[in-house]
Specification:
Blueprint lengths: L4 E2 L1 H12 L19 E5 L2 E6 L8 E8 L10 E7 L11 H14 L13 E6 L6 E7 L6 E8 L6 E6 L6 E7 L5 E9 L5 E9 L2 E2 L8 E3 L3 E6 L11 E9 L3 E8 L3 E5 L8 E7 L5 E8 L5 E9 L2 E3 L6 E4 L4 E7 L7 E7 L6 E9 L6 E6 L8 E6 L4 E7 L4 E7 L5 E3 L1 E7 L3 E5 L5 E4 L2 E7 L6 E10 L2 E8 L6 E5 L7 E2 L1
Antiparallel strand pairs: 1-39, 2-38, 3-7, 4-6, 4-8, 5-7, 8-9, 10-16, 11-15, 11-17, 12-13, 12-14, 12-16, 17-18, 19-25, 20-24, 20-26, 21-22, 21-23, 21-25, 26-27, 28-35, 29-33, 29-36, 30-32, 30-35, 31-34, 36-37
Length: 505
């Protein structure tokens, strides 16, 4: 009898490395010792990212920075690239010569905007205000595990002037954005980017202080393949509200989503999505010189909830004076001004629901500066660092790395990569005491030239949260942007098989 053995476990391992998830089992299978064998962590083999279109201001200058940390266990081959998200369709109204010229232009635009070199070294690219396409990115092989891309724009004048920074994210099917606004001073866009070959259909729901806002065209928004769709929030509703929570739900397909919040007086920045609704949230890395902090929260459940508000300071968890709780009504957005809550020290907000079964999302708007020289940024509730997280585009003088361990003392390792134009990586280990936030003195690469990456790796089981702040000054205004550092999804757990799962034919 001819026997062909197909290894099921090998196939599942490969699937897990690509998708980030896999489960292996056979009906009734149990470990001999009554316990499941420990799962091995393997590097992912393919990943994708989407970057929203940068500012369209003629005064905007945008930098893209790509970095993949060196990961053990990867193959020697692989590639990564960022391409413009521009849907190309033949125009039947054009002559053949005009269409050929358009096709030539299309081929030129299909060249990668950015192609990384080797893992362990950042690569940068630039764009001006009129080059405003969203970017679609894929990485394979040795470039995939932990691939990180940062988009940073500097707008020197006009509505939303300031530093706009955002970490490019993996496409998904649901996003929460507390902290948006339809007020007259704000111009907030939800940018929807579709990386796939089929159209995506998206619903956008808005929730204000009294509940759901009536919207006109928020349902069934079609995002064409390989394209981006900007949606101005003020065109979805006639209601003008200071604090709004946006819920983006994908009916079909998947998208990347981010909010660009532009203020006529207070500058602007990107608002990343909050972590999934939960009864306990951490908003890491409020700058120590913040002059005003506004907390916005929303519960997607039908029940009201009281949020206990605490600040993880360098000395431990404290309750902000006069702001020990925030009452959030079911289905309604709540907000409170916390003032200069950090009082010149590093800090992170820790929110705990009195009933932890009630899911909550949250974000803060942070101001720096005074009077006409104020600038704003946003920090959403974040996921923990997990196994590893990276922030790119750092400089020795303009970067602050903030780390908090709200549930217990933790140890972390921070590695500074080589610079984009040269230098040697350096590492340091830090202990973060329980309930504290520390602005760590991050290492700087020896002989660094150009910007570099900072990679954070927890060395203990205690949950760690982190964020990175970039700062500069333009015409006396303190430009800044803050990015949380969630797990980089560089590895995936693949359970070991307890039985011979081969298929015999």
């Amino acid at each position: 009898m001819n026997r062909t053995t197909l290894s099921l476990i090998a196939g599942v391992t490969a699937l897990a490395a690509v998708t980030g998830f896999a489960a292996v089992s056979s009906p009734g299978a149990e470990a001999k010792d009554g316990a499941a064998k420990a799962a091995a962590r393997l590097p992912v083999e393919r990943t994708s990212l989407v970057c929203p279109p940068p500012s369209t201001s003629d005064l905007a200058e945008t930098t893209y920075t790509s970095f993949t940390p060196v990961t053990k266990g990867t193959e020697n081959e692989g590639k990564a690239e960022l391409r413009a998200a521009t849907e190309q369709k033949p125009d039947e109204s054009k002559s053949e010569d005009d269409q050929d010229a358009e096709d030539d232009k299309s081929e030129e635009s299909e060249k990668p905007v950015l192609e990384p070199g080797d893992p362990g070294k950042p690569v940068t690219g630039e764009a001006t205000g009129d080059e405003s396409s969203a970017l679609l990115g894929t990485a394979e092989g040795r470039f995939a595990p932990g691939w990180t891309v940062q988009e940073t724009s500097t707008v020197t004048a006009g509505t939303g002037r300031g530093m706009h920074g955002v970490a490019c994210t993996a496409p998904d099917t649901e996003f929460w954005f507390p902290g948006t606004s339809t007020d007259g001073d704000r111009t907030d866009y939800v940018h929807l980017t579709n990386p796939d070959d089929a159209a995506a259909v998206v619903d956008i729901e808005l929730y204000g202080k009294d509940g759901a806002l009536e919207t006109t065209v928020g349902e069934g928004i079609t995002v064409q393949p390989h394209s981006a769709e900007p949606v101005l929030l003020s065109t979805l509703t006639d209601e003008k509200q200071t604090d709004v929570t946006v819920h983006v739900v994908v009916r079909s397909g998947r998208i990347g989503a981010a909010v660009q919040a532009l203020d006529a007086e207070l500058g602007g920045d990107w608002l990343p999505a909050s972590t999934d609704p939960a009864g306990r949230l951490v908003l890491p890395g409020i700058p120590k010189d913040a002059t005003a902090v506004r907390l916005v929260a929303f519960t997607s459940g039908g029940a009201d909830v009281d949020l206990k508000v605490r600040l993880a300071s360098p000395s431990g968890l404290i309750t902000p004076a006069g702001h020990d709780t925030l009452h959030v009504k079911g289905g309604m957005t709540a907000a409170v001004d916390l003032g200069d809550v950090t009082r010149g020290e590093a800090g992170s907000l820790v929110l705990t629901a009195a009933d932890d079964s009630v899911p909550v999302v949250a974000a803060v708007r942070v101001l720096r500066g005074k009077g006409d020289d104020q600038e704003s940024a946003f920090i959403p509730a974040a996921r923990p660092v997990g196994t590893r997280a990276t922030a790119v585009e750092n400089t020795a003088k303009g970067t602050t790395l903030s780390v908090t361990a709200p549930e217990g003392t933790a140890e972390i390792k921070v590695t500074a990569s080589a610079g984009a134009e040269g230098g040697t990586e350096a590492s340091k280990t830090y202990t973060i005491k329980s309930g504290t936030t520390q602005d760590v003195e991050a290492p700087v690469p020896a002989g660094v030239k150009g910007t570099y990456a900072l990679t954070v790796e927890p060395r203990s089981d205690t949950p760690v949260y982190a964020s990175r702040t970039l700062t500069t000054t333009e015409n006396g205004v303190p430009f800044f942007t803050v990015q949380p550092l969630p797990d980089d999804r560089g590895t995936v757990a693949v359970p070991e098989s307890n039985e011979d799962l081969s298929i015999v034919q």
